[in-house]
Design goal:
44% of the residues lie in helices and 12% in strands. The protein is built from ten helices and ten strands. Strands 2-1-3-4 form a four-stranded parallel β-sheet, sandwiched between helices. Strands 8-7-9-10 form a four-stranded parallel β-sheet, with helices on both faces. Helix 2 crosses helix 5. The longest helix has 27 residues.
Length: 316
């Protein structure tokens, strides 16, 4: 009798620990906070997401650390934005980690900064941002391509699909779970786009002009027909020329642009200088390349809603 009890107890313990091992979440490394959140939304309890560039941090000036290298080597999956958003050292480290690496912008047609400047309508004004400075950057695309696709919730449906596909590749047992969560998340993204479309449709086209610190909102501009000006290009690394800044100041004065924003990831001094020169009040800040440490933009959907609300108030 005692033996059978001991055997049953032993069987229970083995079964319990086997289930715990099987249920251990998949360690996934993502390059930055927005991608980290999308991965968590789709991965749910089956994943443990660790993000290299955290909330309120600038991925453009991120420096790899030995801790980051260790995280990548210990993970089962590394997710990158792609389109040259990550620095070359990070890209190389990911490839050398011997862990599956996926770029989640696969299949998304990017904005070409040299030909697709549709979000800046008044090209006769000298505010083309002079992307010649791009060649100094440590990115293989020289910033000819805009990587900030998360500012379009329609494109984010493909982005989310790519995240789910990557998770399924490395964790096929979770396929049904990931697909169910993906479907729910894509519905939320569809609703987000519909909501934003309705908000911006109420604003006269002539008012849809905004100054931000760097050129991070091209996809939002293209989707909702807004013109964004920025003293810096798609990266925050290079300083704009005096000529670029003067051209933007002229345009703000000529077109009476009221919506002027700093960003959570970058030094606000340049935007403040332009605001002082033009006498325009700074409308607040936007979340461009990172989520917030506080609750105002703690998830991608929160961030997008926050930005749309802030923009629409300033453009009225």
């Amino acid at each position: 009798m005692k033996l059978s009890r001991i055997y049953l107890l032993f069987a229970f313990v083995v079964c319990f620990f086997s289930r715990q091992i099987l249920a251990a979440p998949l360690p996934v490394v993502t390059s930055f906070s927005i991608l980290g959140d999308v991965t968590q939304q789709i991965g749910g309890q089956r994943v443990k997401v660790q993000t290299l560039v955290g909330p309120d941090q600038d991925a453009h000036i991120y420096q790899l650390s030995s801790k980051d290298l260790r995280l990548m080597r210990q993970s089962k999956l590394i997710l990158l934005n792609g389109l040259g958003f990550e620095s070359l050292p990070l890209q190389r480290a990911a490839q050398q980690s011997h862990v599956p690496v996926y770029e989640v912008t696969k299949g998304i047609k990017p904005i070409d900064m040299h030909t697709d400047h549709d979000h800046n309508h008044d090209h006769d004004h000298d505010h083309s941002h002079d992307h010649s400075h791009d060649h100094s950057h440590d990115h293989d695309h020289h910033h000819a391509i805009d990587p900030h696709v998360w500012n379009d919730p329609v494109l984010m449906q493909t982005y989310a699909q790519n995240v789910a596909d990557a998770l399924i590749q490395v964790d096929p047992a979770g396929k049904a779970y990931y697909q169910q969560r993906l479907s729910q998340y894509q519905q939320q993204l569809q609703q987000l786009n519909q909501w934003a479309s309705n908000i911006f449709a109420r604003i006269p086209a002539a008012n849809r002009k905004v100054l931000t610190g760097h050129d991070a909102f091209g996809y939002l501009a293209q989707r909702y027909h807004i013109e964004f000006l920025a003293p810096q290009g798609v990266s925050t690394e290079a300083e704009p020329s005096a000529r670029q800044v003067a051209a933007i100041i002229s345009q703000i004065r000529e077109q009476h642009i009221k919506a002027v924003f700093t960003e959570n990831i970058k030094d606000p001094r340049m935007v403040k200088r332009i605001a002082d020169e033009t006498g325009v009040h700074i409308s607040g800040h936007l979340y461009s390349d990172a989520l917030s440490r506080d609750q105002s933009a703690a998830t991608y959907i929160d961030m997008f809603r926050y930005n749309v609300n802030a923009l629409s108030r300033a453009m009225q």
